[in-house]
Design brief:
The protein has 181 residues and is an alpha+beta fold. The protein has five helices and eight strands. Helix 1 crosses helix 4 and helix 3 runs antiparallel to helix 4.
């Protein structure tokens, strides 16, 4: 059974996928874990470091003779720059995912799932799939071992994927993370 993915979807799909990839160890252990977009983490990190920078800058302005405040101000300024760099790298990676040319084909059979782009082909055997997590923007095929490939499909294809999974009698693997708050 084949599924052709013609729509790339929004950047949120790839943002969520990056979060899942970055937390793969945790998600393999706890597939029901609530996931979100990784850019939220970058924004939180940037906001906290900016607040720290402003607080320490005020301390430096109030008492510039205390070198400890200057050091903390410089340190928090570096944190602001690093968080901006982190966010930039996330945005760049999302754009690279969205710029993949051509149609993506996902083939399902009794033995494995094959995810094929115009440039690469990825396979994961059903025996290596621990769970199928349905998240807010993605459907992820979570492997039993972190070293195996983690596949994700745009949530817009949920009905088709669920239908195929039921036909293959793999619906016991499905975890719906969209119902959790």
């Amino acid at each position: 059974m084949k599924l052709e993915i013609k729509e790339r979807g929004s950047s949120y799909v790839y943002d969520e996928y990056l979060y899942i990839m970055s937390r793969a160890n945790e998600i393999v252990k706890n597939p029901g874990m609530k996931v979100h977009r990784i850019s939220k983490d970058a924004i939180r990190l940037g906001t906290m470091s900016l607040i720290l920078f402003i607080v320490f800058l005020v301390f430096v302005i109030l008492d510039s003779s205390y070198a400890f405040y200057k050091g903390l101000c410089i340190f928090s300024g570096v944190l602001v720059l690093l968080s901006l760099l982190y966010h930039y790298m996330i945005v760049r990676r999302i754009k690279s995912f969205m710029n993949v040319k051509g149609t993506i084909t996902v083939s399902f059979d009794e033995d494995h799932i094959e995810y094929k782009t115009s440039e690469n082909t990825y396979k994961i055997k059903w025996k290596d799939v621990k769970n199928i997590a349905i998240n807010e923007y993605t459907i992820c095929f979570i492997p039993k071992d972190v070293k195996k490939i983690l596949l994700a499909i745009n949530i817009k294809y949920k009905k088709d994927v669920i239908k195929i999974i039921k036909e293959l009698e793999k619906d016991k693997l499905v975890i719906d993370n969209t119902k959790k708050k």
